[in-house]
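Reopening this ticket.

The earlier resolution said the output was attached, but the attachment link was broken on my side. Pasting everything inline this time so it's all in one place.
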Amino acid sequence: MRKLQITKEEALKVIEILKRAYPNARSGLNFTNPFELLIATILSAQCTDRRVNIITERLFKKYKTPEDFLKLTPEELQEEIKECGLYRNKSKSILETCRILKERYNSKVPQTLEELMLLPGVGRKTANVVLSNAFSKDAIAVDTHVFRVSNRIGLADSKDVLATEKQLMEIIPKNLWSLSHHLLIHHGRNLCTARKPKCEECPVKHLCLYYKGKN
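Inline output:
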């Protein structure tokens, strides 16, 4: 019977090895404050960080606060962000989020998972990204890379994103949650790719259940 998860001790070894492999692992989105990160993360759904950074470099020079964005019509904002996917829906979500921030939070970004997830365009992953990167709170945001890599290695064993997040929170020490999120993303982009993962080059293959299952 196939082993489903590695041990906590093995998980810690995986993180330590990935820390050495990706010493500069951090968010791929450019931002200078929590509001900018919130908007950038909403834009990043089904869009690359690189494309989002091109858009926000221009966008944040013109619009710096929720009030600035609320001067725009949905159509005007669509024109500003049209290079990214789902731009019509994102325009609507951003403006509605800005309205809520202005009316309920004095134009500040809330700092709890529950409050963030009530904002339009903000799911659990986006909320965790903001908590981790903007407010330095311990959180694991499970995107497509984190989901794939963690389940391949054996840090998690789930077909569900939320269950994967909970399993990662259980197996990884809390003080390493945020860093682990970035390490797993970098590993997923560089070696543990969706198609044709570069297993032979992988520094954690000796611990990886996917690799062991192939050999």
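Reporter confirms the inline version is readable. The chain has a mean pLDDT of 95. Residues 87-105 form the longest helix (19 residues).
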